[in-house]
Design a protein that fits this description.
With about 180 residues, this protein is an alpha/beta fold. Strands 1-4-5-6-7 form a 5-stranded parallel β-sheet. A two-stranded antiparallel ribbon has the order 2-3. Strand 6, helix 6 and strand 7 form a beta-alpha-beta unit. The longest helix is centred in the middle third of the chain and has 18 residues.
Amino acid sequence: ARLGFSALWSSPEGVMYPDAGWQGDAYQYPTDLKAWYYYVYETVRRYKGRVKYWEVWDEPAKSQDDIGMTMAMYRRLLLLAHAAIREADPAAKIIMGTMSLDGTKGYLEAFLKEGGGDLVDIIGIDPVNSLLDPEIGAVNERVREVVELVRTLSPKTQVWVTSMAWQTSDGSGDGGLPESV
């Protein structure tokens, strides 16, 4: 399960996307870190025994550009989430928010060099980020690069491919396969 984003009631500057068909998330850094801690603790406590893996935020490297969440800010969120998760369910596994290919190039290395691997059990990656990428055969190489980086800088941390999707068109509606196929 993913822990991330902020409830609209706790983040008045948040943005809601009514066309997306979901309610209640605001894509912004939590304004009240004490509330973040309790949100994580209560969520993990409630689902203890049913949910074993908890991803903390999605694509933290992308959040740097999108909402100005620096690596230091993410580490603060992760540190609080780590403490809350371990208190609520010591057997639970913590997953660093999925890293897209762009995020794995510099962000992940800096994160691990700063000891971020001690806060997670698993690094989630998305090795695909371009049109028809699997057909060019780079996925295995990209995964291997991340695994080698993590083995070097944080040997106890696992690497999982937690997301793998690619487009079949450029989004213009010309060519590609419709979602209904």
